[in-house]
Structure formats: structure tokens, C-alpha cells
Amino acid sequence: MKKMIFSVLAVLTLMVGCESTSYYSRVKVEMVGSPAAKKPYGTVEFFQSKEKVTASYDVIARMSVEGGASTESALIKAFQDQAADIGADGVILYRPDGGSSSGGVYRDEAIHFK
Q1: Which of 14, 30, 47, 75 is the most buried (most CB within 10 A)?
Q2: Sign of CA pseudo-dihedral 105, 31, 87, 15
């Protein structure tokens, strides 16, 4: 019984972990500033809009990936992981025109605090 529970948990973990990985490789990154030292995954802040950012910052990259509402959390994680790889402190998300429910191209800016 314990083996079966462990096996099910292992499979679920792999399924959840792989979803954002597939989006990571699809994210298009356009560098517009200088990258910094790579940061650990999970340390890049997420902002719903640029008005939510309280510190001054420089944009170091613009990113985009296609997706829909059902994949939004995986897209955000992929943006954050890509941003960590270029040393960004945060990402500002721009949802597709018409909202996320219709799907489309998600965009973000990877930012570095001054």
C-alpha cells in the first residue's frame, strides 16, 4: 500500500513539475538591458501590473509565450524561471488583449531593481 501511494505521488509530482518546463522552452526572450548573475528559482517576484511595483527598476528583457487561462500559472512560472536565469528581480505580466480566458500571447517584462 505504501509503495502504491509513493508511486502515485511521484507520478503527480513529475506531471506538475513538467508542465512549466515545457513552457520554459517556448518562452521567447528579447534582451533589452544587461543580464545580471543568475538567481535561484523561486526568488523572482511576480507583479500583476507595473503599478504594483513600488521600487524603481530597469527592464532587462521582454518575454512572450502563447497560452490560455488554463495554463496561466505554468506560464507565469516559466517567465519567473527564465527571469531568474538572466538575474532579474521580478516580472511584470501583461495578459493577452481581451483577457486571459480567450488565450493568446502573454507578455512580460523582466526587471532589475535599482
Answers
A1: 75
A2: positive
Q: Is the dihedral of CA 46, 50, 52, 57 positive or negative?
A: positive
Q: Read off the pLDDT band of 22 (50, 70, 90).
A: confident
The count of C-alpha atoms lying within 13 angstroms of the C-alpha of 80, restricted to the half-sphere facing its C-beta, is 16
Contact call for residues 93 and 50 (beta carbons, < 8 A): no
DSSP strands (E only) in the chain: 28-31, 45-47, 57-67, 90-94, 104-113
Round the CA-based radius of gyration of the chain to a whole number and report it. 16
43 near 93, Cβ under 8 Å?
no
Give per-residue pLDDT as tens, 53-71.
999 999 999 999 998 888 8
Is residue 89 classed as helix, strand or coil in its secondary structure? Answer: coil
pTM value is 0.78
Residue 64 and residue 83: Cα distance in Å, rounded?
12
